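discrete fold record:
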Amino acid sequence: MNPDTTRWLLGPPATRAAEERLFCFPHAGGGASAFASWRPHLPDSVELFPVQLPGRENRVGDPLPATLEELTVQAARALLPLLEPPYVLFGHSFGGLLAYSLTRHLHEHGHPLPRTLLISGARPPHLAADTAYHALPHDELLDFLRATNGVPELLLQHEEFVHRMLTGLRADLRLAAEYRPAPAAPLPCDLRVFAATEDPVVPPAALEGWRAYAGGEFSIHRQPGDHHTVYEPSGGLFDAIVQSGLTRP
């Protein structure tokens, strides 16, 4: 594995023999460690690859891209050596948009596509959010974080951590807000959408918009929870992802 590819992954991949690879993209401002608790709970047939984006955790010093399209190109260049079928892409919130953008990029350039594209807690690209979250004043953005249970309250008491976190969060939220790709044909792969019923970020009605992007099978699965419930391996959303997105028929 070349150094650039390794830099985009959190820790070494699983060493067990796997039949399928699962690449996971985190929420806005989030790091690949958000998926650390998933590994022990995945089927033995699945090899987990949490993707570490620039500007966070061990890549905090790496420059942030100017657009989501630029981030997509960087991710494709780094991860392409590992994107061998059968594989699955999963993205939560901002990561969902990135997973879609990457799949679209791979399709346009003739690369093998994921068997399934899994998207959680994300609006389809053609629907703008009701609020320009990246432009919120400091205190209002912190209130937004608290409302989504995105960061433990104890960490929000540390000024330096909050400043660094909000810088990355605003950057990701801006990329998501400005991402408006030109219309394209539906992707020739299955698309599964997952949503928490108490998610204050993405209205349930918005999720149906993803149907237009699916050229294969399409489904929406809803479970109780908030915006970040999907990271809890004991929750219903995680179980639904494993059962409908990873388990072979």
Observations:
- The mean pLDDT is 88.
- The beta strands are 20-25, 46-50, 87-92, 116-120, 190-196, 218-223.
